[in-house]
Structure formats: structure tokens, C-alpha cells
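Researcher: Structure for this, please.
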Amino acid sequence: MTQPPHDEPTASSPEELREQVEQTRTELGETVEALAAKTDVKGRAQEKAAEVKEQAVAKAGELKEQTALKAGELKVKAAELAHQAQDRLPDPVKDTAAQAARQARAKAAQAGQLWEEKAPEPVREETAQGAQLARDNRKVLLAAAGAAVVVWLACRRRKG
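Model: Predicted structure, C-alpha cell format:
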């Protein structure tokens, strides 16, 4: 028989010996499981992939929120700039723009009537969807038109 290690106490009874054997088996089982987990490359790769995917989804959510906030800020800033541009326009320019807008609306109404009479149904449906989109984003379109007018006036002044 072999001698027990010097740092471990020897069992004084068969019951103690059984307990020590059971504890050793448990520890050995845990050690084997830990080693098996370390050698399971496929399992570890899958765990890492799931972790990375989770992080990517979280980051995408954060970026989406940041983008929405930034878009809202830019929309507000564009509206402010459009109001500033309108405030700086002289009254004759505003009057001319209003008159041009009335004329454009009248021409658009005439064109719309002609369109309703002549265009095929699928084309009219798509056009109606585009018009609804423009109505839904009216402020942005007006801001862009106001900025275009300001740029046009600035270019005219430089040439003249």
C-alpha cells in the first residue's frame, strides 16, 4: 500500500475514508468538467459569438437613438434658420414670393386636374402617395425652399 501524502490527514474510520473518497471524486469531476469546457472550442466560439451579437444589437440600438435625436435637432435648427431667413427678407421680396406661390398653386391645380383626366390609375396612386409624403414633410420643404431663395438672392446681389 502507498503512504498518504503528509499534508492530508489519514482517515480514522471507514466512514471518514468513504467521505474523503467521495469528496475527492467530486473535486475530480469538477476538474474534469472545467478541463472539458476549456477544450470545447466550438462551444466557446458559440458563446463568444452570442456575446458579440448581443453587444452589436445594443450598440445598434444606441446609435439609432442618437441618430433620431440628432435628426430632431437638425430639423429644429433648419426651421430656425428658415425663420431667420424669412425675417431678413425685404417686404417686396416676400410679396413677390407670395404672388409666385399663388401662381404656382393655381398652375399646380390646373396640372392636377389635367393629370386626373389623363393619367393611368397606378401612376395616379403613386403620385398621390408622393404628394401625401410632401404634405407630411411640409415644414422641411418650406425650409429648404426658403434657404434656396436666400442663396439665389445672395448670388444675384454678388453678380449685380
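Researcher: Any notable elements?
Model: The chain has a mean pLDDT of 82. The chain is about 90% helix and 0% strand.
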